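tokens incoming
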């Protein structure tokens, strides 16, 4: 999980303050070179080469460690009530997509109310 000193300055996402939370989290992710992981631009390297043997073991381990770190940052900066929508997510990218979709849905609901 992440270090609380690293995330202490980030407003905890409570389901309402997505933009403020995203700003603080994005800076933290950028500091640790994790943006590509969260945006789905850096994918898990292929596990097998053409001969069917395990390949890229170091790259796979590095990606998994970085993905875990990004998931830790996301989880440590959102309230438990928001964590429930992430139960089935197995990557930081999936978490980001779920949270972004929830925010867009709430924003469109609010626009409709206006």
């Amino acid at each position: 999980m992440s270090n609380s000193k690293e995330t202490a300055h980030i407003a905890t996402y409570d389901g309402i303050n997505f933009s403020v939370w995203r700003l603080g989290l994005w800076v933290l992710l950028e500091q640790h070179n994790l943006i590509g992981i969260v945006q789905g631009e850096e994918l898990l390297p292929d596990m097998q080469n053409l001969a069917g043997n395990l390949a890229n073991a170091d790259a796979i381990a590095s990606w998994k460690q970085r993905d875990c770190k990004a998931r830790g940052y996301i989880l440590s900066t959102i309230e438990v009530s928001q964590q429930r929508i992430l139960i089935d997510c197995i990557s930081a990218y999936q978490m980001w997509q779920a949270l972004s979709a929830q925010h867009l849905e709430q924003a469109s609901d609010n626009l409709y109310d206006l």
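note: DSSP finds six helices and no strands in the chain.
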